[in-house]
Structure prediction request, 360 residues.
Amino acid sequence: MSGFINWIRGHAAEGMTSFALPFEETASERTAGNRFEPNEVYLEVRVEQIWLTNERELWREFQPFAAVVAEFTRSGERVTVPALLGASQLSSKLNLVSDKDAIEIRNLRTLGPVPYEGDDLSLLIALFRTQTRNWLTDTISLIATVAGAISAPGIGQVKPAVDAIVTAVTGFLGQDGIELRCGQYQSWSRAEDTARPGAGDLTPMHYVVMRKPVGRGDGPHQARDFTVRDGRLGRRIGGEFTPYTEHDFIMLSIEPRRLRDDYKRLDFYKYWQQTQAALSQGELTTAERMWRRTAGALYTDELTTIQQEVLYAEYQARYKQMQDRFAEADERAFRGTEAAAASLPVDDQDPRDILLATLP
Prediction:
């Protein structure tokens, strides 16, 4: 990783600039946190927008390639998560802007949601272009595909693969056939006072890395002239929003989220469905075994501590209610007052809705 960082830093002064813009939170969005409170929110990083000029030349002779490598604390240890976006990963989000002779790519999640545990967040951000018909392009595309199969939840088990991926990409830097369009390495610290964060503190933000000819304006001291609307970078000219299209850039969003959008993907939800199915069919021993798996899976580093406790209490109460309902129906059937217990309905409520109801 250090070789990649040093290479980027050595090229960062070559007509490049970067700056942060405040994140405008929608007032009605109850799921978005406005501060990075350790163990209370999820960290999420997205590529909001990539803008590449000279579209005709780009697709005839070159292909885009982006790297966003994050370093953060997970389960008390520093981890590295690479997101490498080759042509195949970018193509689904790609839009040709013919009147501007440009390519626009929008809305790609590169990290998260992962529980924010505090400490620093570091991002290495790089936007390249590689020659279209070149062994280097094919190799980078393959590496990007492999990297895409590695997600943050399993990062502890695949650390050697992560290190190998970053090392492989670092080895390509400076070779013929790959050109850095813009890049930056930046770190933010946990704010000591989250109500009044400093310039280097981690806050919700848009972060822009831009390629500009040396000697032109628009440096960091003029970041106030830029704004973001609907995930696009622009300027306010005469009170009107004008999309920024002059130079190549990549813009990220760095945001705390109070809720995930993928609870049903986590193991505990699968085990909970199996618990209900077994109990519904009267397989009490199997139900008890699956409930223990559910309870164990809830205490995962993919959930914040608070949400672990909330979901455990809720599912434990539901499990007890289902046990009681089944026992009552079975007793009535034994006494002959009604037919044998029918299958109980399976609850498929999204855990997100359970948690949403607990938010202030």
DSSP finds nine helices and 13 strands in the chain. Residues 135-140, 142-147, 149-158, 214-221 have pLDDT under 50 and may be disordered.
